[in-house]
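Support case: user asked for a sample of complex input and structure output to validate their parser. Sending the pair below.
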Amino acid sequence: MKKRFFSKSFRWVFVLLLSLFAVFPVYWMFNTSLTPVEGLFGGQNLIPPLGNILDIFNVFSTDVPIWRWLKNSAIVAFGTTFSSLAMAILAGYGLSRYRFYGKGVLGFALFATQMLPEALLIVPMYALFMSLGLLDGFLGLILANTAFVMPVAVWIVKSAMDSVPFEIEEAARIDGTPRLGVLTQIMIPLAAPSIAAASVILFFDGWNDFLFASTFITTPEKWLASVGLASFIGEFVTPLATVFSAAIVFTIPAIVFFLLMQKQIVSGLTSGSVKG
Amino acid sequence: MPKIVFDKVNKYFGDVHVIKDFTGEIDDKEFLVLLGPSGCGKSTMLRMIAGLIDVTEGSIYFDDELMNDIEPKKRNVAFVFQSYALYPHLTVKANIAYPLLMDQFRWWWHLPFIGNLKRRIYLRRPEVLKRIEEIAETMELTQLLNRRPKTLSGGQRQRVALARALVRNPSLYLLDEPLSNLDAKLRAHMRVEISNLYSRVQKTFIYVTHDQIEAMTMGTKIVLMDKGEIQQQGTPQEIYNNPANVFVASFIGSPPMNLLNVEINQSRITFSNGFSLENSNGAMPDTDKDKVILGIRPEKLIKLRDSEVGIPVTVKIVERLGSESLVAFELKNAMKDSSASESSEKRLFFIKLGGDESINIGDELKIGFNFANVRWFDVQKGNRI
């Protein structure tokens, strides 16, 4: 009895510590954004002044074009998500269902792309984008992000489609579904939870992109929010409260997207299709 | 309604030759059973008929029309899978209506959400609802229409799969071991259901199974396959009574036909235990070889009185089934010298006796038979002589 109590308490303490570890940066960001600059250097309050919570949104009324940056980030994030998903679904289906020469090599090559650090390729990509006229535009950013994150989505979608029994596809063909219809009417709905999970990864990658955005985009109006946030850091002064307020605003759309997708990420959708 | 003709159909998977020169015909409104042990190629054959896999060599015709390159949908067949293959994201109602829905398919249904929306609208159409309800009533699914497959039992799922096959009025029904995932009682029930369905719809059925009881009770014609080759085709009775070779003789029947190695010398037959007898009615095999296989069904063997002349045997196993007893026996050495005992076979053979016979393990019996019931097989090739 005593032993059980201790093991249970230990588990709770462990979970609590891990949660603190994960939540602390968010708490710090929140606290800092609500504390006036002079307070930051004179011993910060542990509990932020919650009465001023709406002050976070004052960041919109400053002369910083945060709306525009958020909009730019959204274009890149959604662009990356949709272009990657479109390719990942087709590639994942192909890798899962068709036999073709070089299938194993292709699967490995997709993984190999993940071994290369983005920083290593940014110089040749810059040169390539310059000659293609893709610099300082969202299309170039979407393409660059898609190239790096799409392989992950391919593998997620492929393994989801691997788990759909062959017979379901055969049944769909007998029932008169066209070839592409098997994918759109049967396979995609059945792989929906994994596709939703993949879309979260893709969206976050586009939303959080900093390296490509700061290198390829030169016009301040086209900055993404991530680059915009970094631009606050001045040579002499950094308005910390504004930076952290903007950072909170920056996380909100990503959280909303995640919550929307989370509903879709439910497992066990294929159970009941075949025996068992 | 098509008459189906197979002309030297061959199928290779890589280097593996799965179907070898399959040639035959299926008449209109026939209930054909493709029977054979696991891995004999019967499911592959069914998938080729459905158009799910390509024919490597040879041709399949429906009413003189070559079907090799025709899409599954255009063949107008229904397929019931061993694993049911229901669409788990759709309700029972939508599962049943799916083939009808696909008849209306347009390219823009591929777009996200449009296909889903169209399906919902389509399922509200009165004529569709009426058709679904008709089918649901015959398959006793009316109460389950709004449930999803995962909430159904095995038997219910199988009925949904059958309902989905029925809904489009196909001209050919293909069933791939549809009962093998069900328990014994439900299997017997569904066997009757499928037979009823066959007599009601009066269409051609092709039914794949490895279960000879299903084959014998349901089929109007059986094609027995082994290792990708047809061993025999005919009515269940023909196959049971006149097996074409030792494989058929030992596959059909439970227990299978007794196959005894014998030596023949004019009209005298000598068994491996040294016992010999004269063939009184003269129906000897037409062969010049002196060693043949004598085949006889367990129910055609007769237990003789001790005073009569018969093959001496020793009882090894007795299975009392109530109405009858199944007795397994070994041939008993009939010769006094030991040389014969070495050549004597130690295999078990079977005889069916009445349920009230008092026989125990170790008993010694004398067994006889009528030569009219004997089938002769070649020792080397296994063919019937």
